[in-house]
Amino acid sequence: MTKSKPSFSIPNPLKKIFGEHKTDDNKQEKNTTDNNEKTTTSTHSKSSDNHSPKSTDDYEARYRMLPKDFDPKADKGEATTKNTGKYKVGKDIKPGHYTITQRSHDMGTFEQDNQYDNYIFSNALSGDSKYIASKISNYLVDGQTVVIKGMKNVKFKPESTHPRTDLNTGVWIVGADVEPGNYTVRSASVYAANFIVKSPDKNEKIKINEVIGKDDEDAKKSLDVNLKKGDIILVQGSGTVKLKK
């Protein structure tokens, strides 16, 4: 996979929130969340070879965010509340599309692994901080793992899947949450966000990886994008974005 990231250092407070987006040789994204020197990067252990790949397609599938031919409207989810801990989707949390929030003043971390126990997403979450995301929207798929760190009473509320143009922190699917087409992307909040677009092919190649925001002269103030059906959009950090055709 070709590594793509901004050529500049993300300024405070964005850099303090989630660090720079990086892609390793195994096509996994790793985001470091730092607040007052507190690291909230995923540290839970992974299984080594519980799912030995039998072909190239199987190998590529191990690092996907979503299963191939994933249907975003198939699972409706069910409201639940969780504390710090590790939870299996399909057993502890029903599969579905959720908005995830917490009310505590403290910062915590929401992390997600795919069904092969490989890291796919993480972000800081706080109920009362202008520097940290107040909600995360994400698809939770049967077999995946959710890790909650440093939080109590984290609420998972089922989120309807429909086209929209305002995207908060989380994961969105073009063709379900966003209509395909040409857009100009701009920040919709005070702080910048990492805006990432992955292709729907077998290795989910990163098409776009840019910081968009108003709070730093090095961040892009706007970005023109062509979004195709099946593309996966990640919005990470504390900011939100707005799409306009």
List the helices and strands and how they pair.
Layout: H1 14-18, E1 22-23, E2 29-30, E3 34-35, E4 38-39, H2 56-61, E5 80-82, E6 85-88, E7 96-101, E8 108-113, E9 119-125, E10 136-140, E11 145-149, E12 154-158, E13 166-167, E14 170-173, E15 181-187, E16 193-198, E17 206-212, E18 222-227, E19 232-237, E20 241-244
Antiparallel strand pairs: 1-2, 3-4, 5-12, 6-11, 7-10, 7-12, 8-9, 8-11, 13-20, 14-19, 15-18, 15-20, 16-17, 16-19
Plain-language structure description:
Residues 1-10 have a biased composition (Polar residues). Residues 17-37, 46-79 have a biased composition (Basic and acidic residues). Residues 1-88 are annotated as: Disordered. The protein has 245 residues and is mainly beta. The protein has one domain (14-42, 56-67, 74-244). It is 4% helix and 37% strand. The protein is built from 2 helices and 20 strands. The protein has helices at 14-18, 56-61; strands at residues 22-23, 29-30, 34-35, 38-39, 80-82, 85-88, 96-101, 108-113, 119-125, 136-140, 145-149, 154-158, 166-167, 170-173, 181-187, 193-198, 206-212, 222-227, 232-237, 241-244. The strands form 6 sheets. The chain has a 4-stranded antiparallel beta sheet, with no helix packed on it. The longest helix is centred in the first third of the chain and has 6 residues, at 56-61. It starts with 13 loop residues before the first helix and ends with a strand. The relative contact order is 0.21. The model is unreliable at 1-49 (pLDDT under 50).
